Amino acid sequence: SKGLDYFSDQEEREHPLVWMFLDEAHEFLPLHGKTAATDALIQLLREGRQPGISLVLATQQPGQIHRDVMTQSDIVISHRVTSQPDLEALNYIMQSYLFESIKKYMDDLPSLKGSAIILDDNSERIYPMRIRPRFTWHGGEAPTTIKAEKRL
């Protein structure tokens, strides 16, 4: 049975939207070469919105990721990067409406932890932002064999 979305006149989708999250995306979508996942992920990047599939990709090395990732992205959130290949990769996606280089926007960011920029392809604008500090425990720390002593 098809219904209407409460807030719009659009019909509800028969199938829910699917979101796929991929960390270290440059390992699956390298700038040079291919992995077993590259072709399928590139196809999702190019055609995924039509069947209702959205990708959220994370990398610390935008200069090492496949160019289609950069050109097919609607929104890019980037913390401060300083390496030339990473700056060039970010410049590559926003070249049509950037008035200044990405490096200038990065240099204008405050040096506070969590500072970033949002590159929005839909509005063709760049926004500064700051992500709040994490309030939860971080489970990604390396294990240690030496137990920390508690001080009284």
From TrEMBL:
This is Uncharacterized protein. It comes from marine sediment metagenome. InterPro entries: HerA-like (IPR008571), P-loop_NTPase (IPR027417).
